[in-house]
Amino acid sequence: MSGRKLAKIAYRLLQLTFVGLVIAHVLLDLGYPWWWNFLPIVLSYVILVVAHRWGGAPDSPRAAREPVEVEPPVTGRWSALNSPADRTPSHGTHAYGQTYAIDVVAEPEPGARPAFRWLWPLARRAGAFPAYGAPLFAAAEGTVVRAVDSQRDHLSRTSLLALLYLMIVEASVRDLAGVKRVVGNHVVLDLGDGTHALHAHLRRGSLTVREGDRVTAGQLIAQCGNSGNTTEPHLHFQLMDGPDPDSARGIPFTWRGLGVPHNRETFEAPTTTAQPT
């Protein structure tokens, strides 16, 4: 187990210790100053900082690589969100190896995707979004090293109250629960040469591959879902230098024939010979 992984485990344990101490302090008379409860949370961040400097920043020059060209993992008309073409880290953090990650949502036609609402409806079923159930494909030839599809697909978080709940409560709980609760159902492919591809937020029960399988570029591997830390059904895609997002660093990518779409850019992903028509 790498030092970066051990640091993340220690961080989560200390964060949970903080929560436990706060609850105990409220319910019981423990006889010590209230600010002592914050010692575990301070120590947890100290550990992350030390691990960050010891292990090297995820985007440090020694970890930098040329973009790896792979096939688009979707087909049809989609739009990009949180794109590395606009900024890095694309999701505002290097955590989980997502320095160069991208989110894509299905846009089969203008207006087909439900828009964000300030008040109502608070949430929508996953099936209301055109991305839900859309076929997803292996971005390159490789070996399946991780395959998880047991987590449920939850409601959307596309209203103001639901989004605040996600950001303030749900995201924190998922982070403490571990990387699997963040990326949801997912497939990780070992592409060789120290490169791994993550396809995340997949539909429960939709995986067509399992760990150890060898796949070809464009092979159907799952359906798009709404599992993990998501606001709506979409595909989160990234390349990284290891199979575990908890300890991996991001690797830049480019999609063959498309490059890297910018935020809110609508693109048409072609169908490859390996994909069903």
Automatic annotation (TrEMBL):
Leader sequence segment: none
Keywords in alphabetical order: Membrane, Transmembrane, Transmembrane helix
Q: Spell out where the chain crosses the membrane.
A: 9-28, 34-55
What GO molecular function annotations does the UniProt record carry, in alphabetical order?
metalloendopeptidase activity
Pfam families this protein is in? Peptidase_M23 (PF01551)
For the keyword Electron transport, the answer is no
Q: Where is the M23ase beta-sheet core domain?
A: 177-241
Which protein is depicted? M23 family metallopeptidase
